[in-house]
Amino acid sequence: RLAGASRMTPEDLLNILEDLGEEEFIKFKWLLQQSSHLSPAMRKSRLQTATRQDTVDLLVQSAGRFGPAALVSKVLLKIDRKDLLQALCGSVYVAAGREVHINTQHEVRQIENVLKPARETAVKPRDMFSHPSGEYQPIKTVLTNGIAGIGKTFLVQKFVLDWAERRANQDVDLIFPFTFRQLNPLRAERLSLAQLIHECIPETVDIREEALNYIFTSRFKLLFVFDGLDESRLPLDLHVDDVRSVDVTKTSTTDVLLRNLIGGKLLRSARIWITSRPAAANQIPRRFVSSVNEVRGFTDLQKETYFRKRFGGEEQAEQIIAHIQASQSLHIMCHIPVFCWIAATVLEDVLKTRGTAELPNSLTDMYTEFLVFQIHHTKQKYGSQTSLRYIKSLAKLAYQQLEKGNLIFYKKDLVESNVDFTEASVFSGIFTEIFKEVRGRKGKDQMIYISKALQSPNGHLDLFLRFFLGLSLSSNQDKLKELLNLTNCSSETKQKTVQYIKEKINENVSVEKSLNLFHCLNELNDRSLVEDIQRFLSSGSLSADQLSPGQWSALVFILLSTKDLDVFELKKYSASEEAFLKLLPVVKASSRAL
């Protein structure tokens, strides 16, 4: 059986190793010295005296193309500690029946506008191929979409693990999980389906091609999973009818095999599961999709559960949860599981090293503290000069890929950013999860970046703009003084930037853009527009018919920040058609509008 392992951060790996007894840890290290198709054997001399932290670094550096998670999962199975794998597999929220549409907002803006779970049907991983109505209806192809980092790959791996350990979906005989990252390098090759499986799924190496071909032509129930359609570099044109049929035993190009599998011309009875970010999901024509759902990451309750598990002490856990809930930006971002990990890492470090120091309140604060944490630890291990050099190289890489709109990058991109591929692998344990651009700029350039972000067609610079403006504050620059050339950003420069943003808000830009600009003002610690509207609301003297475009935007921003939006009293603001259109985002976010 094929078992998928959860995508693990270095901290996840360390938590697993710390749960092993001494004898188990010794056996774990001994098994790492044995070569396998997942990874070459690790040297005994490096493992013999390795601590658990050292072993994590070695795992990240030495794991093969399938990553450390696959290797750790294999070893845990051999030492009979499957419970540790299961413990990692919590859950993410999945909503049924979400139609795929193209949204030109930055993906983080999409989760800020997310509908309330109470209005939707939640889907358990094991029920991915069950009809939301509960009635029996055959489902051939499922399309799961969700923003980057929200938990799509985790969901797939949880499904496969539950199947492999006989907890669910036992009507399926075999699961073949692929990722488009694996498939991309094979786009120019001609392979049979059996050969493609051998190339991408290491656990099948002992199954002969003849046996796989027999399985394909017999009455076995098969599931093919294709994870990460948004990362595909294959020419998958499914909108054009392809009259060619493919013999499953013959070789074809990878894109032809996938087109025929998804289009139902190859292995017609096989089930297909595709995951994608929303913007790429339209590559699959609706006629090929039986069911659509969306991964939403952590619910509010799951966020709390994560922090309570992470912080043993009840008092500290309550302090962290209260702090996250008090900041709208942080609370929203914690829908993304990896951001919960970043927030927990930062807050734990701040409380441990600075005690009663003020906790980070904004996204810029959080990422700045995360970078400070990484600088401190990499300097201890690799030295100050080397550490800062690589952080700057990774910043350059992140910014260049951001401008291009790329989520993933390859070796050639590292070379273009002056990152030595071999040396960079040493740092992979530190920067496994996320790279963020951090730069110092003169005040006059801030207006250029604001304009550039407003012009981006898909909002991919929106979040960068928040970080960039937040980094102009002297408080954040002081924390990163080793990395940044201080800009001596004066209060006058800051005020000019604030005024420029307010002018842009008053220009009647789209609701999405204006909301992001309010987040930018928050990063600059300016809440004057919002406070003006709040005073009007408190006094009861708000006249919606006399609001400026900027005040309308501030009103929408405040209303969307309200925790309880089950019922929205639209008539309280204005009965005009203009008011309805201005407040439409609030109407959409509420369960009922009066």
Automatic annotation (TrEMBL):
Residues 2-98 form the Pyrin domain. It comes from Xiphophorus maculatus (Southern platyfish). The lineage of its organism: Eukaryota, Metazoa, Chordata, Craniata, Vertebrata. Keywords: ATP-binding, Cytoplasm, Leucine-rich repeat, Nucleotide-binding, Repeat. Pfam families: NACHT (PF05729), NLRC4_HD2 (PF17776), PYRIN (PF02758), WHD_NOD2 (PF17779). GO terms for molecular function: ATP binding. InterPro entries: DAPIN, DEATH-like_dom_sf, NACHT_NTPase, NLR, NLRP_HD2, NOD1/2_WH, P-loop_NTPase. This is NACHT domain-containing protein. One of its GO terms (cellular component) is cytoplasm. Signal peptide: none annotated. Coiled coil: none annotated.
